[in-house]
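Quick one, C-alpha cells below. Sequence please?
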C-alpha cells in the first residue's frame, strides 16, 4: 500500500526536488524542512519557487506535504532572545507554509528550562494564540509532536499536549503527531 507510505526528503536543489524524490520513492506523503533545520533564519523563497513547488505538488499525485519546524524553536522559553527568535521563526514558517500550500506543521513544544512545566505550557499556549492572530494567512494545523522527555522538554506525556490544545483559544488548529 504505497498510498500511505511517507518519507522525509531533502530539499537540496530546491523545495520542488523533494516532491520529485518522494514520487520516485513511491511515497504518498512527504515531510520537509522548508529551510535548514538548525538555523534561525532561512533563505527566502521567491514567488517563482513557491509557484514551482505548488505546481509540482499539484501534478505529483502525492496525498500531502507536511512541514517540520526548525529544531531551535522553543515557545516555552522565558521572555528574552530565545523566545523572541522562536516566535519570529515559527511565524515565518507559518507564512512560508501558507505560500507553499502546506497545511500541516509538525513542531516540538519546547523546553520549560528552569521554570515549572506548567509555566512552560502556559508560554506555549500564549505563543500559539499570538501566532495564529499574527499570521492569519496560515489556516492549517499545528501538529504537536511527542518527545522522549529528556531534561525539561515538554510533550513527554499526552496530557501536556492536551493542556496546550485545551488552553488555546484555537483548539481546532491543533492535532498530535
Amino acid at each position: 500500500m504505497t498510498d500511505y507510505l511517507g518519507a522525509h526528503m531533502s530539499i537540496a536543489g530546491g523545495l520542488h526536488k523533494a516532491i520529485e524524490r518522494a514520487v520516485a520513492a513511491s511515497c504518498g506523503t512527504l515531510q520537509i524542512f522548508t529551510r535548514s533545520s538548525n538555523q534561525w533564519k532561512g533563505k527566502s523563497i521567491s514567488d517563482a519557487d513557491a509557484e514551482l513547488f505548488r505546481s509540482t505538488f499539484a501534478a505529483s499525485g502525492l496525498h500531502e506535504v507536511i512541514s517540520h519546524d526548525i529544531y531551535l524553536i522553543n515557545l516555552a522559553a522565558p521572555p528574552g532572545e530565545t523566545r523572541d527568535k522562536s516566535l519570529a521563526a515559527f511565524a515565518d514558517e507559518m507564512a512560508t507554509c501558507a505560500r507553499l500550500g502546506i497545511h500541516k506543521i509538525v513542531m516540538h513544544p519546547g523546553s520549560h528550562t528552569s521554570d515549572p512545566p506548567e509555566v512552560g505550557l502556559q508560554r506555549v499556549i500564549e505563543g500559539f494564540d499570538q501566532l495564529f492572530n499574527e499570521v492569519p494567512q496560515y489556516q492549517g494545523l499545528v501538529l504537536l509532536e511527542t518527545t522522549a522527555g529528556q531534561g525539561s522538554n515538554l510533550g513527554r506525556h499526552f496530557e501536556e499536549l492536551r493542556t496546550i490544545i485545551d488552553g488555546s483559544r484555537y483548539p481546532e488548529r491543533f492535532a498530535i503527531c
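Strands lie at 6-8, 29-32, 64-68, 104-107, 141-144, 174-176. Helices lie at 15-24, 47-60, 81-100, 117-134, 158-167.
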